[in-house]
Specification:
It contains four helices and no strands. The protein is mainly alpha-helical and 147 residues long. The protein is elongated, with a radius of gyration of 34 Å.
């Protein structure tokens, strides 16, 4: 009895495997017929199967590109913040060194490069605060809109 049940199980599985094999073969034939028909009917650039495949690939690439751009923008913003802090710190250190050696140093208002730098930082901070979003993110969203 146990041997008969074991044998029936194998026959059932074999039948199912054969059914799946035939179905896979039939689907492959249909796919090849469709591809051949589309190649005959449509020029290569307008083949619907190729176009759908390309659209899916572009959608995947767009998602990847969007993630990479967001990472890049975050890294850029971090670099700007760190560079600004370093420049301000170095300028302060230079002024203290000059003062300790008795060398006169330019005041903030007399140093045009530093005044321009502070103005850029101020404008960046005002823009960031007033719009509650980084300028880079706004530019990115204007160029690449979400689906």
């Amino acid at each position: 009895m146990k041997n008969q049940r074991h044998q029936q199980h194998h026959e059932a599985v074999d039948g199912l495997l054969n059914l799946f094999t035939r179905a896979n073969h039939d689907l492959t034939l249909v796919q090849h017929r469709l591809e051949k028909e589309f190649q005959q009917i449509y020029p290569h650039n307008a083949n619907p199967m190729i176009l759908v495949s390309r659209i899916k690939k572009l959608q995947e690439d767009l998602c990847t590109l969007k993630e990479q751009c967001q990472e890049l923008l975050a890294a850029k913003q971090d670099l700007i913040d760190k560079a600004s802090a370093t420049l301000v710190g170095n300028r302060s250190l230079l002024q203290r060194s000059q003062a300790s050696m008795g060398i006169p140093h330019a005041s903030d208002s007399d140093d045009s490069a530093y005044a321009n730098f502070k103005l850029v930082l101020l404008m960046r901070n005002e823009t960031h605060e007033s719009e509650s979003e980084d300028i880079n993110k706004m530019l990115f969203s204007a160029i690449v809109q979400s689906n």
